[in-house]
């Protein structure tokens, strides 16, 4: 049994290229044995920001990769995505069933040799809600690095530190930093059905190199059912977050059936060959799962994504010539994107909200015979995603290869 294609609203949020991008980075990191998390949504929005300052073939290439026909549509799409990733409006009760705690920040720092075009400034402030600043990279690279890092750290409540590595903005021979784009997305959701910390136990987790480590695993009472599906080479569990009516979030765990290395990499290949895989509507049913164990984990991951983008064919934004819609200067044809920095944070633990005692999803017409009760024990490397269900937007994709890594 395979997942069915998801229709309707997901076509409005086409992020296939950024899903392919994150899947490529995921494979590279899995080869190293490291945990990984990134956001296709925030990467898509950042590329939209670059497109807003482009023209000619550079603009056409960006539109092609981002699945849009014109800048206006792309700006509107980015604006909708940003609204999905924005925190609750001021005045809302932070403890209300308002859904996950979200923080999404975009920023651009431009060398002071250039003057921002008013049209670009309006688009960035309006559609992209990004902070733009004119700076002097030649003499204050270290100070700007600290400024960007402080800005991101503040926006993510201290959980994302040092987005820019020390020295990353220093000028090199024949290459002066002209523009830096940074993006940070933080997410923390409360389970709709919380885990009981008293039931958490140390269990074995099997690493790809054959080693076994002791990891805290969470579980639920046997009477609690879970949205579950079993396919040819993997199992899926969907765990909803306490969410708003207009924004519904869930976390999905994709567990390869095989514990060996090829099990994980076969699943990664499935994602790479089908970028729409994570946007599909999986055929899941409420099931008793016995045993049911999910490891706790907490880590961050950062990437400088320009080289991977170039390898995938998105090259023109990184060459001078057509980023002329960003600045008002006779030297604007010398401007090119130097770096795209992105960092994400994720934490999975037992925490939930008391308001999530029951949901309509608990209703089911058919019970499974006790001898056929399936299990879900995530005791070997697995993939995960966090998705907004109303619009089918993938906020995060990641992999846990060692739950103790960066904990």
From TrEMBL:
The UniProt entry's GO CC annotations, sorted and at most eight, read: extracellular space
Question: SMART domains attached here?
Answer: SERPIN (SM00093)
Residues in domain Serpin? Answer: 19-403
Question: Origin, by domain of life?
Answer: Eukaryota
Q: Which GO terms describe its molecular function?
A: serine-type endopeptidase inhibitor activity
Q: Which family does it belong to?
A: Belongs to the serpin family.
Q: What is this protein called?
A: Serpin domain-containing protein
The organism is Rhamnella rubrinervis
């Amino acid at each position: 049994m395979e997942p069915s294609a998801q229709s309707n609203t997901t076509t409005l949020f086409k992020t296939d290229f950024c899903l392919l991008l994150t899947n490529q980075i995921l494979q590279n990191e899995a080869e190293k044995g490291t945990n990984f998390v990134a956001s296709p949504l925030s990467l898509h929005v950042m590329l939209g920001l670059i497109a807003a300052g482009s023209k000619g073939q550079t603009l056409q290439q960006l539109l092609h990769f981002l699945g849009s026909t014109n800048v206006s549509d792309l700006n509107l799409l980015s604006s909708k995505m940003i609204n999905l990733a924005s925190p609750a409006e001021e005045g809302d009760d932070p403890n209300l069933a308002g859904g996950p705690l979200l923080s999404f920040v975009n920023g651009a720092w431009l060398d002071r040799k250039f003057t921002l075009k008013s049209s670009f400034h309006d688009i960035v402030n309006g559609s992209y809600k990004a902070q733009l600043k004119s700076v002097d990279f030649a003499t204050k690279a270290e100070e700007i690095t600290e400024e960007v890092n402080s800005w991101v750290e503040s926006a993510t409540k201290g959980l994302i530190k040092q987005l820019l590595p020390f020295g990353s903005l220093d000028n090199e021979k024949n290459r002066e930093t002209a523009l830096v784009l940074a993006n940070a997305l933080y997410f923390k959701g409360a389970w709709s059905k919380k885990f009981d910390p008293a039931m958490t136990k140390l269990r074995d987790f099997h690493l790809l190199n054959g080693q076994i480590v002791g990891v805290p695993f969470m579980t639920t009472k046997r009477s609690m059912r879970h949205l579950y599906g079993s396919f040819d080479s993997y199992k899926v569990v969907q765990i909803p977050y306490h969410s708003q009516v207009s924004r519904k979030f869930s976390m999905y765990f994709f567990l390869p059936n095989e514990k060996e290395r090829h099990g994980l990499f076969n699943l990664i290949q499935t994602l790479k060959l089908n970028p729409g895989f994570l946007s599909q509507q999986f055929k899941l049913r409420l099931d008793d799962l016995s045993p049911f164990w999910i490891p706790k984990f907490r880590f961050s991951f950062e990437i400088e994504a320009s080289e991977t983008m170039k390898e995938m064919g998105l090259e023109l934004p990184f060459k001078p010539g057509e980023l002329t819609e960003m600045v008002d200067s006779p030297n604007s044809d010398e401007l090119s994107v130097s770096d795209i920095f992105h960092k994400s944070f994720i934490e999975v633990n037992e925490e939930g909200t008391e308001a999530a005692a029951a949901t309509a999803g608990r209703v089911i017409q058919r019970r499974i015979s006790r001898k056929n009760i399936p299990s879900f024990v995530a005791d070997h490397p697995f993939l995960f995603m966090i998705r907004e269900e109303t619009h089918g937007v993938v906020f995060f994709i990641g992999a846990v290869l060692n739950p103790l890594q960066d904990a």
